[in-house]
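### Sample
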Amino acid sequence: MTLLDHPNIQITGEGGHTMRKLPAWMTTPQTVSGEWLQQAGLALPILDPESAILIGLQRV
């Protein structure tokens, strides 16, 4: 699981929104099973309504 593209996300304390910390998968590629992802889900950052992120998933 890799973050392929994203807007410039500002965190609290840096003139940003209510995010205090970005989810770990946004800064470091993660390897998880499909079963785990189905059960746990994916924590998304708080974005402006007109923003989007592109997430890449690769079968290993």
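Residues 34-40 form the longest helix (7 residues). This sample (Alpha-galactosidase) is used throughout the tutorial notebook.
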